Hints:
Blueprint: E1 2-8, H1 13-24, E2 29-36, E3 44-47, E4 50-53, E5 55-56, E6 67-70, H2 74-86, E7 90-93, E8 105-106, H3 113-118, E9 122-124, H4 128-143, E10 146-155, H5 162-176, H6 208-221, E11 227-234, E12 241-249, H7 255-264, E13 268-270, H8 282-285, E14 291-298, E15 305-312, H9 316-332
Parallel strand pairs: 1-2, 1-6, 2-5, 6-7, 7-9, 8-9, 10-11, 13-14
Antiparallel strand pairs: 3-4, 10-12, 12-15, 14-15
Helix pairs in contact: 1-9, 4-6, 4-7, 4-9
Amino acid sequence: MFDTVAVVGASGAVGQIIRQLLEERKFTAKKFRFLASARSAGQKLTFNGEEYTFEELTHDAFEGVDLVIASTPDDIAAEYLPSAVKAGCKVIDESGYFRMKEDVALVIPEINPQDALNAKGIIASPNCSTTQMVVALKPLHDFSPITRVICSTYQATSGAGVQGTADLHQGSQAFLNNESYEYKAFSHPIAFNAIPQIGSEKEDGYTSEELKMVYETRKIMGLPNLKVSTTCVRIPVANCHSETITVETESPISPEKARELFAAFPGITVMDNLKNGEYPLPSTCDGSDEVFVGRIRKDISCDNGLSFWCVSDNLRKGAATNAVQIAELLSENL
């Protein structure tokens, strides 16, 4: 058990879920602290039935803290988390800033727990769309090594923050009322639309979000040469990311075997009955910590191909839950 745990970004959307999960999962520590921006500092919150006060995030705020769970924008993480490391804290970081740095572990506990246990300083949690995909890839790869991955994502507006969801709700209402609406989180209307760009333009016509999935997948799985191609699309769904995933493996995996492998893997739930219209939907997976898979079928375009559909709550397993699971792993191995 850690003596003192600090949640950084505790008043934000993911920070609120981290607090909720620490309560739900009965994560134990002798003391909790909740750090936030100057705007939130001084406000009260209730945690485990007790009243706490948000403290302002400063470089000196980490003294006496053993574990930091941080969910902040990249620039805030870059500025403040090195101070936590200097103060001797273990740090779990939800931002994207440290993920691909060579000396930083990038961890999904079901996939590479030892990397977290061996880490010095900062442990990064992956991008939300990467997390659910890699969880689904792992049991297949363990059975027959994966040689190629093609993934298209259908990402919820909550992945663009509170303003993204506000744009969906208010933009939809404006559309139905035949009124104009000025979108703030998106460069195109999201209501009744699909935007095939998430992130900035990068090399070879890919976006930053797409390349995150490529590079993070390779790092987490320890497969630096794995062939991965992604297309990331924002759709008018409030929460839960969906993905179509096609893999090629060294030897064929039948749909029946894939269902068996998925079902036996921790953190995966199989919903796969096409005849009865049973498969994962964002509306039914919302609020869950699981990764859901369905529509499992042979890829008829190649000999060793398998295709499936994957849905997960991007604010939970894609962010807060993964961070809390890393914290649990560290606590259990003190």
